[in-house]
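Complex record, two chains
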Amino acid sequence: MGGDFGPSVIVEAAHRFVEQSCSEILLVGDPKQLTSASDSIKVVPASEVVEMHESPSTVVRTKPQASIRVAFQLLRNGGAQAVVSTGNSGAMMVAGIMELGTIKGIARPAIAALLPRLGRDEPVVLLDSGANVDCSAHQLLQFALMGSHYARLLLGDEQPRVALLSNGTEESKGNDVLRAASRILAAERRIQFIGYIEANEVMRDRADVVVCDGFTGNVMLKAAEGTAHVVREAVEQGLRSSLRGRMGLALAAPILRKLFRGRFDPAAYGGAPLLGLEGLAIVCHGASNSNAVLNALRVAERCHRQRLVRELSTAIELLEAEMG
Amino acid sequence: MGGDFGPSVIVEAAHRFVEQSCSEILLVGDPKQLTSASDSIKVVPASEVVEMHESPSTVVRTKPQASIRVAFQLLRNGGAQAVVSTGNSGAMMVAGIMELGTIKGIARPAIAALLPRLGRDEPVVLLDSGANVDCSAHQLLQFALMGSHYARLLLGDEQPRVALLSNGTEESKGNDVLRAASRILAAERRIQFIGYIEANEVMRDRADVVVCDGFTGNVMLKAAEGTAHVVREAVEQGLRSSLRGRMGLALAAPILRKLFRGRFDPAAYGGAPLLGLEGLAIVCHGASNSNAVLNALRVAERCHRQRLVRELSTAIELLEAEMG
């Protein structure tokens, strides 16, 4: 029921998805707004909705029939294997923790966002991209481990390169938490740690997993998203200001549109799993179009087939046992 | 002597600058690499150079004849009124503090970077963009005050809008330091505080001054810079892959070049003053071209004419007296 464009993009993505997949879709929400023209798509009614501006923790608790809670109840009862939502991400986090709980040893899940990379078709994984404002060095280690497993399943790379987002590449850079995390990560044999990465290198092919606290990840993600939009608008305004530019734009427009609606629109880039939740949950950007939702459904299917949650659970259990 | 392109861009910018200005330029460094074809440009020899990869604090101390130290000595002795450099910014900070000291009440200067804005010719001021990794709420207040004065002199806006960079606009967002800073700023009548701003809104016309710690500012600035480069490269690669795209690119190229080498190349955007230093110092990006250096020289001239340092000094003195 969430997202900037309402349920129609979800319904469209669901229909495109089931055409190519043997998975089934349950659309959870207001039956009047949700339609199915396929045997593989069913509507599950939910009488309440969490709005984008509402405070997640209070609203989720006071709305037992909210669509996001009903969706997670389906997951808990085995009626579904993954939840995908374009709605209020804070509400999704609260509802997920309430209905499913977290993997043992994880206080709160991290949001693992995907950013496009120049020179690589596969995206880079950025986590935490918004859930945990203050993080300890140990939490960053957990994020690095979970991000590595996720990148391996998603990118098929046996040894994903993990970097810490910092304000320079020298060892002396960063703050106390980052320097402590850097020492722990360098000693952790299950992670291929390559050191610090600067924000201008994230979208290049240098690291496969970039780890940071949720405040820094939010700034990184939104700065990239904002700059991509601003540059696009400036390019189009610049070209429209002359005849020569307008001719160039007319020729370039279909290619630019494909690029900006596809890989290089960070807002539309697939979905971000809540890593550390005891179940599979993919949060999509509010501005997701049906391509983005379709990508998120594919990510969900792939993560389920590869048993991502079970693998993360085992990895964290081993880590916590060794660290005492 | 610094910068990715060596002294030639500096020499070129100096010659372009003196053609339009009644100010004089002193080029400090190796006389063999510095040439003057104008009565308004003199070469001041300095026998040592701080390289980009060298550790600022040790090198500056062990190289008394480093060009950056000689430049600040000129400033201290009244032989110059501003220092502009494309060299190692850490070394500039250390040399500036060593030779000039900071304004009373300021522990370390903040770097006030400029970012382009969509829909406004004037840039937005972002500080601290890299000098102070950990900042107290009181430091953020000082940055807000200094940034307001700088924006007023630079943009001619009597009441610049000041925002704190955060992970959301609601009051509950941010960390402890940001929430404390938000309360102090809201009560400060000399600052027009508009609340939190998210990273995707920084390059739009919402705030004139964006305040954050130097770690967050570094991530914001480098994410914007990196994304602008990556989007540009992706656009050009995308267009080159088809005949239609290549025709469009051929028509659009001069306009794109102007845009990306001008306002929308954050790397090339003028210079960033070290606010809080007891003298005028402008640090340029290492990748500055001669346009960027020319802009930085104009910013330096303007700040000197408007007596920026004296104004900041008075403002901080008043603030500290009132805060006890």
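Note: DSSP finds ten helices and eleven strands in chain A.
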